[in-house]
């Protein structure tokens, strides 16, 4: 079995839990509390800033320009296109996007960002891609399931969000997760079983952190004694 197939197979229960999560179900039905949407966007803006930096770290580990081009392209995609789904949530919530761009990391955002930075700091290219892959993979799976179920109908306020992450919109890179899985299979040939187990755990943890990220926003889970939302903008030191 290809290593990528093993990863997908082992992560299937987590993917199902994500698809069943009340936040994702709220996207399906077009009903989500304003507080969940704004918490998500604030944290996701922070998360995507970290994601861009981890892509930059991946460029540093590339051995050829065709790999570099993938990460370069994705940095552009996040900077210029990934703002659309955030706008969809902000419009539904009735909140200006700019007001959500200075959020300090809530606990799960901190954990997810640090998990990716750890792969960049202590791993090879394959470790970084394993930690990053659940992001495009789970969103692509979520959106295509919702499309298959006809949830991207005109009555759904989240139609554009679903189309963006699914295979419908023109400006999305629908095959990104396939390209990353192929890159992982190519690189996996250079590693022994013990090392592949570490790589697999990075992937599985990021899948789990994807579930945590939805849960955190749905329940607006903050630090208990040092809440992120009480910090002033000029006190924000985390990236
Ligand atoms: C927590 C979280 N996970 C996944 C995505 C979706 N996403 C973010 S970047 C990217 C691919 C860009 O290379 C995709 C699909 C998100 N927005 N937030």
Automatic annotation (TrEMBL):
<dbReference type="InterPro" id="IPR050967">
    <property type="entry name" value="Thiamine_Salvage_TenA"/>
</dbReference>
<keyword id="KW-0784">Thiamine biosynthesis</keyword>
<dbReference type="GO" id="GO:0005829">
    <property type="term" value="C:cytosol"/>
</dbReference>
<comment type="subunit">
    <text>Homotetramer.</text>
</comment>
<keyword id="KW-0378">Hydrolase</keyword>
<dbReference type="InterPro" id="IPR016084">
    <property type="entry name" value="Haem_Oase-like_multi-hlx"/>
</dbReference>
<comment type="function">
    <text>Catalyzes an amino-pyrimidine hydrolysis reaction at the C5' of the pyrimidine moiety of thiamine compounds, a reaction that is part of a thiamine salvage pathway.</text>
</comment>
<feature type="domain" description="Thiaminase-2/PQQC">
    <location>
        <begin position="10"/>
        <end position="219"/>
    </location>
</feature>
<dbReference type="GO" id="GO:0009228">
    <property type="term" value="P:thiamine biosynthetic process"/>
</dbReference>
<dbReference type="InterPro" id="IPR004305">
    <property type="entry name" value="Thiaminase-2/PQQC"/>
</dbReference>
<comment type="pathway">
    <text>Cofactor biosynthesis; thiamine diphosphate biosynthesis.</text>
</comment>
<dbReference type="GO" id="GO:0050334">
    <property type="term" value="F:thiaminase activity"/>
</dbReference>
<comment type="similarity">
    <text>Belongs to the TenA family.</text>
</comment>
<protein>
    <recommendedName>
        <fullName>Aminopyrimidine aminohydrolase</fullName>
        <ecNumber>3.5.99.2</ecNumber>
    </recommendedName>
</protein>
<dbReference type="InterPro" id="IPR027574">
    <property type="entry name" value="Thiaminase_II"/>
</dbReference>
<dbReference type="Pfam" id="PF03070">
    <property type="entry name" value="TENA_THI-4"/>
</dbReference>
<dbReference type="GO" id="GO:0009229">
    <property type="term" value="P:thiamine diphosphate biosynthetic process"/>
</dbReference>
